[in-house]
Amino acid sequence: MVLEQLESPDPDAFVEAAKTAFRNGAMLTVEAECEVEYEGRTSGYLGPGERILVAKPDGTFLVHQPTGHKPVNWMPGGGSVSARVSEGEAVLLARRSNPTERVEARIHECYGLTRFDATDGATYEESGTEAEMHEYIAENPDVLEEGLRIVEHERETKYGFIDFYAVDGDGTPVVVEVKRIQATLNHFDQLQRYVSLYEETNDDVRGMLVAPSASERVKRALRDNGLEFVGLSEFGLDAKGSTEAKLTDF
Amino acid sequence: MVLEQLESPDPDAFVEAAKTAFRNGAMLTVEAECEVEYEGRTSGYLGPGERILVAKPDGTFLVHQPTGHKPVNWMPGGGSVSARVSEGEAVLLARRSNPTERVEARIHECYGLTRFDATDGATYEESGTEAEMHEYIAENPDVLEEGLRIVEHERETKYGFIDFYAVDGDGTPVVVEVKRIQATLNHFDQLQRYVSLYEETNDDVRGMLVAPSASERVKRALRDNGLEFVGLSEFGLDAKGSTEAKLTDF
Protein backbone atom coordinates (compact mmCIF):
# COMPACT_ATOMS: atom_id res chain seq x y z
CA MET A 1 0.00 0.00 0.00
CA VAL A 2 1.26 3.46 -0.95
CA LEU A 3 -0.75 6.61 -0.41
CA GLU A 4 -0.04 10.22 -1.31
CA GLN A 5 -2.38 13.13 -0.67
CA LEU A 6 -1.98 16.55 -2.25
CA GLU A 7 -4.03 19.58 -1.28
CA SER A 8 -4.69 22.14 -4.03
CA PRO A 9 -1.89 20.95 -6.36
CA ASP A 10 -1.09 23.29 -9.27
CA PRO A 11 -1.50 21.86 -12.80
CA ASP A 12 2.12 20.67 -13.01
CA ALA A 13 2.04 18.97 -9.59
CA PHE A 14 -1.33 17.47 -10.53
CA VAL A 15 -0.04 15.98 -13.78
CA GLU A 16 3.12 14.68 -12.14
CA ALA A 17 1.15 12.93 -9.38
CA ALA A 18 -1.35 11.54 -11.90
CA LYS A 19 1.41 10.16 -14.13
CA THR A 20 3.02 8.54 -11.09
CA ALA A 21 -0.31 6.91 -10.24
CA PHE A 22 -0.75 5.59 -13.80
CA ARG A 23 2.86 4.37 -13.93
CA ASN A 24 2.51 2.52 -10.62
CA GLY A 25 -0.94 1.06 -11.31
CA ALA A 26 -2.44 3.05 -8.45
CA MET A 27 -5.98 4.37 -8.02
CA LEU A 28 -6.29 8.12 -8.47
CA THR A 29 -9.03 10.14 -6.77
CA VAL A 30 -9.47 13.84 -7.47
CA GLU A 31 -11.72 16.44 -5.86
CA ALA A 32 -12.04 19.30 -8.30
CA GLU A 33 -14.05 21.94 -10.11
CA CYS A 34 -14.02 20.73 -13.71
CA GLU A 35 -15.92 20.43 -16.98
CA VAL A 36 -16.31 17.08 -18.74
CA GLU A 37 -16.75 16.08 -22.37
CA TYR A 38 -17.80 12.76 -23.85
CA GLU A 39 -17.26 11.79 -27.48
CA GLY A 40 -18.20 8.39 -28.88
CA ARG A 41 -21.60 6.89 -29.55
CA THR A 42 -22.84 10.43 -29.03
CA SER A 43 -21.37 13.73 -27.90
CA GLY A 44 -21.97 15.11 -24.44
CA TYR A 45 -20.95 17.98 -22.23
CA LEU A 46 -21.08 18.52 -18.47
CA GLY A 47 -20.50 22.15 -17.51
CA PRO A 48 -18.28 23.35 -14.65
CA GLY A 49 -19.06 21.98 -11.19
CA GLU A 50 -17.39 20.48 -8.12
CA ARG A 51 -17.14 16.68 -8.32
CA ILE A 52 -15.00 13.64 -7.72
CA LEU A 53 -12.97 11.91 -10.43
CA VAL A 54 -11.66 8.35 -10.02
CA ALA A 55 -9.14 6.72 -12.36
CA LYS A 56 -8.25 3.04 -11.97
CA PRO A 57 -5.19 1.17 -13.27
CA ASP A 58 -7.38 -0.83 -15.71
CA GLY A 59 -8.39 2.36 -17.52
CA THR A 60 -11.67 2.80 -15.67
CA PHE A 61 -12.60 6.47 -15.29
CA LEU A 62 -15.52 7.72 -13.18
CA VAL A 63 -17.03 11.18 -12.76
CA HIS A 64 -19.19 11.43 -9.64
CA GLN A 65 -21.37 14.44 -8.84
CA PRO A 66 -22.34 15.11 -5.21
CA THR A 67 -25.51 12.99 -5.49
CA GLY A 68 -26.61 9.76 -7.16
CA HIS A 69 -25.07 6.29 -7.18
CA LYS A 70 -24.39 6.37 -10.91
CA PRO A 71 -21.38 8.22 -12.31
CA VAL A 72 -22.53 11.07 -14.57
CA ASN A 73 -19.77 10.05 -17.00
CA TRP A 74 -17.44 7.09 -17.09
CA MET A 75 -15.20 4.91 -19.17
CA PRO A 76 -14.99 1.17 -18.55
CA GLY A 77 -11.65 -0.58 -18.17
CA GLY A 78 -9.68 -1.66 -21.23
CA GLY A 79 -8.53 1.74 -22.38
CA SER A 80 -6.12 4.15 -20.76
CA VAL A 81 -6.18 7.38 -18.80
CA SER A 82 -3.59 10.11 -19.38
CA ALA A 83 -2.86 13.51 -17.87
CA ARG A 84 -1.46 16.68 -19.44
CA VAL A 85 -1.30 20.42 -18.90
CA SER A 86 -3.19 22.48 -21.49
CA GLU A 87 -3.68 26.25 -21.51
CA GLY A 88 -2.49 26.40 -17.91
CA GLU A 89 -4.96 23.77 -16.70
CA ALA A 90 -4.64 20.07 -15.91
CA VAL A 91 -6.60 17.70 -18.17
CA LEU A 92 -7.44 14.03 -17.61
CA LEU A 93 -8.28 12.05 -20.75
CA ALA A 94 -9.72 8.53 -20.65
CA ARG A 95 -10.03 6.78 -24.01
CA ARG A 96 -10.51 3.36 -25.53
CA SER A 97 -11.15 1.81 -28.95
CA ASN A 98 -13.92 -0.63 -30.00
CA PRO A 99 -15.94 1.44 -29.63
CA THR A 100 -13.82 4.57 -29.96
CA GLU A 101 -14.79 6.71 -26.99
CA ARG A 102 -13.20 9.46 -24.94
CA VAL A 103 -14.11 11.19 -21.71
CA GLU A 104 -12.05 14.28 -21.04
CA ALA A 105 -12.08 16.32 -17.85
CA ARG A 106 -10.59 19.81 -17.78
CA ILE A 107 -9.65 20.69 -14.21
CA HIS A 108 -10.36 24.37 -13.58
CA GLU A 109 -9.35 24.01 -9.95
CA CYS A 110 -8.09 20.94 -8.09
CA TYR A 111 -8.82 20.96 -4.35
CA GLY A 112 -7.51 17.51 -3.50
CA LEU A 113 -5.73 14.56 -5.12
CA THR A 114 -5.09 11.11 -3.64
CA ARG A 115 -2.88 8.45 -5.14
CA PHE A 116 -3.66 5.02 -3.66
CA ASP A 117 -1.65 1.95 -4.65
CA ALA A 118 -4.16 -0.66 -3.49
CA THR A 119 -4.04 -4.45 -3.37
CA ASP A 120 -7.35 -6.29 -3.21
CA GLY A 121 -7.61 -10.00 -3.91
CA ALA A 122 -11.07 -10.46 -2.40
CA THR A 123 -14.18 -11.48 -4.36
CA TYR A 124 -17.70 -10.66 -3.28
CA GLU A 125 -19.45 -13.80 -2.10
CA GLU A 126 -23.22 -13.94 -1.97
CA SER A 127 -25.37 -16.47 -0.19
CA GLY A 128 -29.12 -17.00 -0.16
CA THR A 129 -31.50 -15.13 2.12
CA GLU A 130 -31.67 -15.47 5.87
CA ALA A 131 -35.33 -16.49 5.53
CA GLU A 132 -34.36 -20.05 4.54
CA MET A 133 -32.13 -20.28 7.58
CA HIS A 134 -34.87 -18.94 9.88
CA GLU A 135 -37.30 -21.52 8.56
CA TYR A 136 -34.80 -24.32 9.16
CA ILE A 137 -34.13 -23.16 12.74
CA ALA A 138 -37.83 -22.64 13.51
CA GLU A 139 -38.47 -26.25 12.46
CA ASN A 140 -35.35 -27.69 14.11
CA PRO A 141 -34.48 -25.61 17.19
CA ASP A 142 -32.45 -28.58 18.48
CA VAL A 143 -29.73 -27.83 15.92
CA LEU A 144 -28.96 -24.78 18.08
CA GLU A 145 -29.16 -26.60 21.41
CA GLU A 146 -30.78 -29.71 22.81
CA GLY A 147 -34.09 -28.71 24.48
CA LEU A 148 -34.15 -25.14 23.16
CA ARG A 149 -37.69 -23.89 22.56
CA ILE A 150 -38.57 -20.97 20.24
CA VAL A 151 -40.94 -18.54 21.96
CA GLU A 152 -41.13 -15.89 19.27
CA HIS A 153 -39.82 -15.33 15.77
CA GLU A 154 -38.76 -11.76 14.91
CA ARG A 155 -39.63 -10.02 18.15
CA GLU A 156 -39.51 -6.25 17.85
CA THR A 157 -37.29 -4.20 20.20
CA LYS A 158 -36.26 -0.56 20.22
CA TYR A 159 -33.01 -1.69 18.51
CA GLY A 160 -34.79 -3.57 15.74
CA PHE A 161 -36.05 -7.13 15.32
CA ILE A 162 -34.57 -10.01 17.30
CA ASP A 163 -34.48 -13.05 14.98
CA PHE A 164 -35.56 -15.54 17.68
CA TYR A 165 -36.53 -15.16 21.30
CA ALA A 166 -36.19 -18.63 22.89
CA VAL A 167 -35.83 -20.38 26.25
CA ASP A 168 -33.38 -23.18 27.01
CA GLY A 169 -33.98 -26.44 28.90
CA ASP A 170 -33.71 -24.61 32.25
CA GLY A 171 -36.16 -21.92 31.20
CA THR A 172 -33.46 -19.29 30.75
CA PRO A 173 -34.28 -16.79 27.98
CA VAL A 174 -32.03 -16.93 24.90
CA VAL A 175 -31.72 -14.10 22.36
CA VAL A 176 -30.80 -15.62 18.99
CA GLU A 177 -29.32 -13.56 16.13
CA VAL A 178 -29.06 -15.37 12.79
CA LYS A 179 -26.63 -14.46 10.00
CA ARG A 180 -26.42 -16.12 6.62
CA ILE A 181 -22.81 -15.07 6.08
CA GLN A 182 -19.63 -15.65 8.08
CA ALA A 183 -20.13 -13.97 11.47
CA THR A 184 -18.41 -10.59 11.82
CA LEU A 185 -17.76 -8.18 14.68
CA ASN A 186 -20.69 -6.10 13.40
CA HIS A 187 -22.97 -9.07 14.11
CA PHE A 188 -21.42 -9.43 17.56
CA ASP A 189 -22.20 -5.73 18.13
CA GLN A 190 -25.82 -6.24 17.16
CA LEU A 191 -26.33 -9.29 19.38
CA GLN A 192 -24.74 -7.47 22.31
CA ARG A 193 -27.15 -4.55 21.89
CA TYR A 194 -30.14 -6.90 21.92
CA VAL A 195 -28.91 -8.85 24.94
CA SER A 196 -28.24 -5.65 26.89
CA LEU A 197 -31.95 -4.83 26.56
CA TYR A 198 -32.94 -7.97 28.45
CA GLU A 199 -30.10 -7.80 30.98
CA GLU A 200 -31.79 -4.69 32.38
CA THR A 201 -34.49 -7.02 33.71
CA ASN A 202 -32.79 -10.44 33.71
CA ASP A 203 -29.07 -11.06 34.31
CA ASP A 204 -29.30 -14.68 33.20
CA VAL A 205 -30.41 -13.94 29.62
CA ARG A 206 -28.18 -15.72 27.10
CA GLY A 207 -27.12 -14.38 23.69
CA MET A 208 -26.51 -16.72 20.77
CA LEU A 209 -25.05 -15.77 17.38
CA VAL A 210 -25.87 -18.31 14.67
CA ALA A 211 -23.94 -18.26 11.38
CA PRO A 212 -22.30 -20.65 8.89
CA SER A 213 -18.91 -19.82 10.41
CA ALA A 214 -16.97 -17.25 12.45
CA SER A 215 -13.36 -16.14 12.69
CA GLU A 216 -11.39 -16.75 15.89
CA ARG A 217 -11.51 -13.02 16.56
CA VAL A 218 -15.31 -12.95 16.48
CA LYS A 219 -15.54 -16.09 18.63
CA ARG A 220 -13.23 -14.48 21.18
CA ALA A 221 -15.25 -11.23 21.25
CA LEU A 222 -18.39 -13.28 21.91
CA ARG A 223 -16.70 -15.42 24.59
CA ASP A 224 -15.17 -12.41 26.35
CA ASN A 225 -18.65 -10.86 26.58
CA GLY A 226 -20.45 -13.98 27.80
CA LEU A 227 -22.11 -14.61 24.45
CA GLU A 228 -22.24 -17.84 22.45
CA PHE A 229 -21.63 -18.91 18.87
CA VAL A 230 -23.37 -21.75 17.01
CA GLY A 231 -22.05 -22.65 13.58
CA LEU A 232 -24.46 -24.03 10.97
CA SER A 233 -21.95 -24.99 8.30
CA GLU A 234 -24.73 -26.42 6.12
CA PHE A 235 -25.48 -22.79 5.26
CA GLY A 236 -21.90 -22.09 4.16
CA LEU A 237 -21.27 -19.48 1.50
CA ASP A 238 -21.53 -20.33 -2.15
CA ALA A 239 -19.78 -17.71 -4.27
CA LYS A 240 -22.08 -16.82 -7.14
CA GLY A 241 -20.33 -13.95 -8.92
CA SER A 242 -23.24 -12.09 -7.43
CA THR A 243 -21.57 -8.81 -8.24
CA GLU A 244 -22.80 -9.21 -11.79
CA ALA A 245 -26.27 -10.13 -10.61
CA LYS A 246 -26.61 -7.24 -8.18
CA LEU A 247 -25.18 -4.74 -10.60
CA THR A 248 -27.92 -5.21 -13.14
CA ASP A 249 -29.46 -2.48 -11.00
CA PHE A 250 -27.05 0.00 -12.50
CA MET B 1 -16.06 24.39 -1.28
CA VAL B 2 -14.49 22.92 1.85
CA LEU B 3 -11.89 20.18 1.74
CA GLU B 4 -10.17 18.28 4.53
CA GLN B 5 -7.65 15.50 4.02
CA LEU B 6 -6.53 13.14 6.77
CA GLU B 7 -3.69 10.67 6.40
CA SER B 8 -3.98 7.44 8.44
CA PRO B 9 -6.61 8.77 10.89
CA ASP B 10 -7.22 6.56 13.93
CA PRO B 11 -10.77 5.21 14.44
CA ASP B 12 -11.85 8.17 16.59
CA ALA B 13 -10.49 10.78 14.17
CA PHE B 14 -12.06 8.83 11.29
CA VAL B 15 -15.51 8.79 12.88
CA GLU B 16 -15.29 12.46 13.84
CA ALA B 17 -14.36 13.49 10.28
CA ALA B 18 -17.06 11.22 8.81
CA LYS B 19 -19.74 12.66 11.11
CA THR B 20 -18.66 16.17 10.14
CA ALA B 21 -18.98 15.23 6.48
CA PHE B 22 -22.49 13.79 6.99
CA ARG B 23 -23.56 16.79 9.09
CA ASN B 24 -22.34 19.25 6.44
CA GLY B 25 -23.69 17.36 3.45
CA ALA B 26 -20.18 16.76 2.13
CA MET B 27 -18.84 13.90 0.01
CA LEU B 28 -16.64 11.47 1.92
CA THR B 29 -13.92 9.45 0.20
CA VAL B 30 -11.92 6.84 2.09
CA GLU B 31 -8.90 4.77 1.08
CA ALA B 32 -8.77 1.79 3.39
CA GLU B 33 -8.26 -1.89 4.05
CA CYS B 34 -11.72 -3.09 5.00
CA GLU B 35 -14.27 -5.90 4.88
CA VAL B 36 -17.80 -5.32 3.61
CA GLU B 37 -21.15 -6.96 4.34
CA TYR B 38 -24.44 -6.68 2.49
CA GLU B 39 -27.79 -7.68 3.96
CA GLY B 40 -31.06 -7.24 2.11
CA ARG B 41 -32.44 -9.08 -0.89
CA THR B 42 -29.63 -11.53 -0.18
CA SER B 43 -26.63 -11.70 2.13
CA GLY B 44 -23.13 -11.04 0.91
CA TYR B 45 -19.60 -10.73 2.19
CA LEU B 46 -16.45 -9.16 0.73
CA GLY B 47 -13.33 -10.18 2.62
CA PRO B 48 -10.49 -7.83 3.63
CA GLY B 49 -8.83 -5.85 0.84
CA GLU B 50 -7.63 -2.35 -0.04
CA ARG B 51 -10.32 -0.29 -1.73
CA ILE B 52 -12.02 3.08 -1.99
CA LEU B 53 -15.27 3.97 -0.21
CA VAL B 54 -17.41 6.93 -1.27
CA ALA B 55 -20.34 8.28 0.76
CA LYS B 56 -22.56 11.03 -0.65
CA PRO B 57 -24.91 13.41 1.20
CA ASP B 58 -27.97 11.74 -0.38
CA GLY B 59 -27.11 8.42 1.30
CA THR B 60 -25.32 6.94 -1.70
CA PHE B 61 -22.54 4.57 -0.65
CA LEU B 62 -20.03 3.03 -3.06
CA VAL B 63 -17.32 0.41 -2.56
CA HIS B 64 -14.75 0.43 -5.37
CA GLN B 65 -12.07 -2.21 -5.78
CA PRO B 66 -8.88 -1.33 -7.72
CA THR B 67 -10.37 -2.48 -11.04
CA GLY B 68 -13.75 -2.40 -12.80
CA HIS B 69 -16.17 0.46 -13.44
CA LYS B 70 -18.90 -1.06 -11.28
CA PRO B 71 -18.80 -0.74 -7.51
CA VAL B 72 -18.52 -4.19 -5.90
CA ASN B 73 -21.11 -3.04 -3.34
CA TRP B 74 -23.26 0.06 -3.14
CA MET B 75 -26.35 1.63 -1.71
CA PRO B 76 -28.42 4.07 -3.76
CA GLY B 77 -29.45 7.44 -2.35
CA GLY B 78 -32.52 7.75 -0.15
CA GLY B 79 -31.14 6.15 2.98
CA SER B 80 -28.40 7.35 5.29
CA VAL B 81 -24.77 6.61 6.07
CA SER B 82 -23.46 6.62 9.65
CA ALA B 83 -20.08 6.09 11.30
CA ARG B 84 -19.15 4.56 14.65
CA VAL B 85 -16.24 2.97 16.48
CA SER B 86 -16.71 -0.72 17.27
CA GLU B 87 -14.15 -3.04 18.88
CA GLY B 88 -11.44 -0.46 18.27
CA GLU B 89 -12.23 -0.13 14.55
CA ALA B 90 -14.15 2.45 12.52
CA VAL B 91 -17.34 1.21 10.84
CA LEU B 92 -19.37 2.87 8.08
CA LEU B 93 -22.99 1.73 7.79
CA ALA B 94 -25.23 2.65 4.86
CA ARG B 95 -28.87 1.64 5.19
CA ARG B 96 -32.28 2.33 3.69
CA SER B 97 -35.82 0.94 3.92
CA ASN B 98 -38.14 -0.20 1.08
CA PRO B 99 -36.38 -2.45 0.48
CA THR B 100 -34.61 -2.83 3.82
CA GLU B 101 -30.94 -3.06 2.93
CA ARG B 102 -27.65 -2.40 4.65
CA VAL B 103 -24.06 -2.25 3.47
CA GLU B 104 -21.56 -2.15 6.30
CA ALA B 105 -17.82 -1.60 5.95
CA ARG B 106 -15.48 -2.39 8.81
CA ILE B 107 -12.27 -0.39 8.42
CA HIS B 108 -9.31 -2.48 9.53
CA GLU B 109 -6.91 0.27 8.51
CA CYS B 110 -7.65 3.69 7.05
CA TYR B 111 -4.86 5.13 4.92
CA GLY B 112 -6.59 8.26 3.73
CA LEU B 113 -9.84 10.19 4.20
CA THR B 114 -11.10 13.20 2.27
CA ARG B 115 -14.09 15.33 3.17
CA PHE B 116 -15.27 17.39 0.18
CA ASP B 117 -18.13 19.84 0.52
CA ALA B 118 -18.93 20.12 -3.19
CA THR B 119 -21.41 22.29 -5.11
CA ASP B 120 -22.40 21.09 -8.57
CA GLY B 121 -25.42 22.52 -10.37
CA ALA B 122 -24.49 21.22 -13.82
CA THR B 123 -26.50 18.64 -15.79
CA TYR B 124 -25.01 16.40 -18.42
CA GLU B 125 -26.19 17.47 -21.86
CA GLU B 126 -26.06 15.08 -24.76
CA SER B 127 -26.37 15.89 -28.43
CA GLY B 128 -26.55 13.64 -31.48
CA THR B 129 -23.53 12.23 -33.26
CA GLU B 130 -21.00 14.25 -35.19
CA ALA B 131 -21.79 12.14 -38.27
CA GLU B 132 -24.99 14.14 -38.94
CA MET B 133 -23.01 17.35 -38.74
CA HIS B 134 -20.30 15.99 -41.06
CA GLU B 135 -22.93 15.03 -43.62
CA TYR B 136 -24.50 18.48 -43.48
CA ILE B 137 -21.12 20.20 -43.94
CA ALA B 138 -20.04 17.87 -46.75
CA GLU B 139 -23.23 18.75 -48.62
CA ASN B 140 -23.16 22.48 -47.79
CA PRO B 141 -19.51 23.59 -47.42
CA ASP B 142 -20.69 27.16 -47.98
CA VAL B 143 -22.15 27.25 -44.46
CA LEU B 144 -18.52 27.33 -43.29
CA GLU B 145 -17.32 29.86 -45.83
CA GLU B 146 -18.35 31.13 -49.23
CA GLY B 147 -16.35 29.29 -51.89
CA LEU B 148 -14.87 26.66 -49.52
CA ARG B 149 -14.29 23.31 -51.24
CA ILE B 150 -13.98 20.00 -49.39
CA VAL B 151 -10.96 18.03 -50.64
CA GLU B 152 -11.09 15.11 -48.24
CA HIS B 153 -13.35 13.86 -45.44
CA GLU B 154 -11.58 12.25 -42.45
CA ARG B 155 -8.00 12.44 -43.62
CA GLU B 156 -5.66 10.40 -41.46
CA THR B 157 -2.65 12.07 -39.82
CA LYS B 158 -0.19 10.88 -37.18
CA TYR B 159 -2.33 12.74 -34.61
CA GLY B 160 -5.56 11.10 -35.69
CA PHE B 161 -8.23 11.88 -38.27
CA ILE B 162 -8.82 15.42 -39.51
CA ASP B 163 -12.58 15.86 -40.00
CA PHE B 164 -12.27 17.84 -43.24
CA TYR B 165 -9.32 18.87 -45.34
CA ALA B 166 -10.53 21.74 -47.58
CA VAL B 167 -9.29 24.65 -49.67
CA ASP B 168 -10.74 28.17 -49.63
CA GLY B 169 -11.55 30.46 -52.60
CA ASP B 170 -7.88 31.43 -52.92
CA GLY B 171 -6.72 27.82 -52.90
CA THR B 172 -5.35 28.05 -49.36
CA PRO B 173 -5.63 24.74 -47.45
CA VAL B 174 -8.06 24.72 -44.52
CA VAL B 175 -8.01 22.12 -41.71
CA VAL B 176 -11.57 21.78 -40.34
CA GLU B 177 -12.29 20.20 -36.95
CA VAL B 178 -15.98 19.60 -36.24
CA LYS B 179 -17.51 19.30 -32.75
CA ARG B 180 -21.11 18.53 -31.95
CA ILE B 181 -20.93 20.13 -28.51
CA GLN B 182 -20.00 23.62 -27.34
CA ALA B 183 -16.34 24.18 -28.34
CA THR B 184 -13.85 23.74 -25.49
CA LEU B 185 -10.15 24.37 -25.00
CA ASN B 186 -9.55 20.67 -25.57
CA HIS B 187 -10.97 21.06 -29.06
CA PHE B 188 -8.75 24.11 -29.62
CA ASP B 189 -5.77 21.93 -28.52
CA GLN B 190 -6.71 19.27 -31.03
CA LEU B 191 -7.13 21.67 -33.95
CA GLN B 192 -3.82 23.32 -33.13
CA ARG B 193 -2.03 19.95 -33.23
CA TYR B 194 -3.48 19.18 -36.67
CA VAL B 195 -2.68 22.60 -38.09
CA SER B 196 0.90 22.40 -36.79
CA LEU B 197 1.38 19.30 -38.97
CA TYR B 198 0.65 21.28 -42.15
CA GLU B 199 2.50 24.41 -41.05
CA GLU B 200 5.69 22.37 -41.33
CA THR B 201 5.19 22.50 -45.10
CA ASN B 202 2.80 25.42 -45.60
CA ASP B 203 2.68 28.55 -43.43
CA ASP B 204 -0.58 29.70 -44.98
CA VAL B 205 -2.65 26.71 -43.87
CA ARG B 206 -5.79 27.81 -42.00
CA GLY B 207 -7.41 26.06 -39.04
CA MET B 208 -11.17 26.17 -38.52
CA LEU B 209 -13.07 24.88 -35.47
CA VAL B 210 -16.74 24.25 -36.21
CA ALA B 211 -19.18 23.80 -33.32
CA PRO B 212 -22.69 24.86 -32.24
CA SER B 213 -21.15 27.49 -29.96
CA ALA B 214 -17.99 28.51 -28.11
CA SER B 215 -17.18 30.47 -24.96
CA GLU B 216 -15.34 33.79 -25.23
CA ARG B 217 -12.32 32.09 -23.69
CA VAL B 218 -12.18 29.48 -26.44
CA LYS B 219 -12.73 32.09 -29.17
CA ARG B 220 -9.88 34.14 -27.74
CA ALA B 221 -7.51 31.12 -27.60
CA LEU B 222 -8.32 30.42 -31.26
CA ARG B 223 -7.88 34.07 -32.28
CA ASP B 224 -4.60 34.45 -30.37
CA ASN B 225 -3.24 31.45 -32.25
CA GLY B 226 -4.41 32.49 -35.71
CA LEU B 227 -7.22 29.95 -35.79
CA GLU B 228 -10.88 30.51 -36.67
CA PHE B 229 -14.26 29.62 -35.22
CA VAL B 230 -17.46 28.95 -37.14
CA GLY B 231 -20.65 28.54 -35.14
CA LEU B 232 -23.39 26.26 -36.49
CA SER B 233 -26.09 27.06 -33.95
CA GLU B 234 -28.55 24.80 -35.81
CA PHE B 235 -26.68 21.94 -34.12
CA GLY B 236 -27.17 23.40 -30.66
CA LEU B 237 -27.38 21.06 -27.67
CA ASP B 238 -30.64 19.43 -26.74
CA ALA B 239 -30.50 18.13 -23.20
CA LYS B 240 -31.86 14.60 -23.21
CA GLY B 241 -31.29 13.37 -19.67
CA SER B 242 -28.79 11.23 -21.47
CA THR B 243 -27.24 10.23 -18.20
CA GLU B 244 -30.08 7.75 -17.78
CA ALA B 245 -29.68 6.51 -21.31
CA LYS B 246 -25.95 6.04 -21.14
CA LEU B 247 -26.07 4.44 -17.73
CA THR B 248 -28.16 1.52 -18.89
CA ASP B 249 -24.69 0.14 -19.55
CA PHE B 250 -24.21 -0.27 -15.84
From TrEMBL, chains A, B:
Coiled coil ranges: none
Matching Gene3D superfamilies: 2.70.180.20, 3.40.1350.10
GO MF, one example: single-stranded DNA endodeoxyribonuclease activity
InterPro entries in the record: Endonuclease_NucS, NucS_C, NucS_N, NucS_N_sf, tRNA_endonuc-like_dom_sf
Highest taxon of source: Archaea
Compartment(s) where it occurs, according to its Swiss-Prot or TrEMBL record: Cytoplasm
Broadest EC class assigned to this enzyme: hydrolase
Domain Endonuclease NucS N-terminal PH-like: 27-120
Entry keyword set: Cytoplasm, DNA-binding, Endonuclease, Hydrolase, Nuclease
Domain Endonuclease NucS C-terminal: 130-233
Similarity comment text for this entry: Belongs to the NucS endonuclease family.
HAMAP family recorded: NucS (MF_00722)
Function: Cleaves both 3' and 5' ssDNA extremities of branched DNA structures.
Record's protein name: Endonuclease NucS
Species in which this protein is naturally found: Natronobacterium texcoconense
